[in-house]
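hey can u run this one w/ adenosine-5'-diphosphate bound, need the structure tokens asap thx
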Amino acid sequence: MSTLLIDAKAINTYYGASHILRGIDFRVARGETIGLMGRNGMGKSTLLKSIMGLVKPRSGSVDIAGQPMMGRPPYEIARLGIAYVPEGRGIFGNLSVVENLKMAARAGTRGQRDWTYERVLETFPRLKERLGHGGQQLSGGEQQMLTIGRALMTNPDVLILDEATEGLAPLIARDIWRICQVVRETGISSVIVDKNWKHVTQITDRNVILVKGEVVFEGSSPELHARPQLLQQYLGV
Ligand SMILES: Nc1ncnc2c1ncn2[C@@H]1O[C@H](COP(=O)(O)OP(=O)(O)O)[C@@H](O)[C@H]1O
Ligand SMILES: [Mg+2]
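ok here u go:
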């Protein structure tokens, strides 16, 4: 049996005639925390969508927990334990916080129910104070916490966060980073896309940098820190 939860190989994805992902290999092992980096427009979100079945690659393969899943619909990928929090906030604005969370609840692929409604509220005390509020009454930060809370209620094996701290006040962003750490400690793998490479590399085991749809660096956080010219060249920091 494969220990890789996500194993994407030689992915080529196009939007119309534009060749966006150019032969990308990307894998996630159980328990691994991965930073996916690169400047705007380099293909990070397209790679995540290609994995989740939201965009169909023209060639390559996507295996999820050892099963060939390329071209399968997003709900099938999700059912194999992959929770995806896209850019922007995908909550149900007309439902309350309680409803948003309880609707998402299910056991994980191994029957695990580590993340219960109670545990999510303990982890996100801000949400606890807003239980009866509709999703659209929440601040941007609270909405983001709700989307992450919903993702955790599915008891995933992998949590994918695409720009989760984007546009949030520093204190709220710090709370999201704290949650990433908690997720890591519970043994859930994660893929984190975020502009703040310092925060990202504090918690990641491995980092992947994309430039124009190709992987130009892959390595541990210490390896990346030891090569500041890469950060400068590829991330512009
Ligand atoms: N739906 C789309 N249709 C056409 N081009 C797109 C679409 N989404 C993204 N792109 C283009 O694909 C490239 C990669 O975008 P994206 O994956 O969103 O990058 P990133 O997440 O790294 O900022 C960019 O040039 C972007 O303009
Ligand atoms: Mg993006």
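The domain at 4-235 is CATH 3.40.50.300 (Rossmann fold). anyway lmk if its weird
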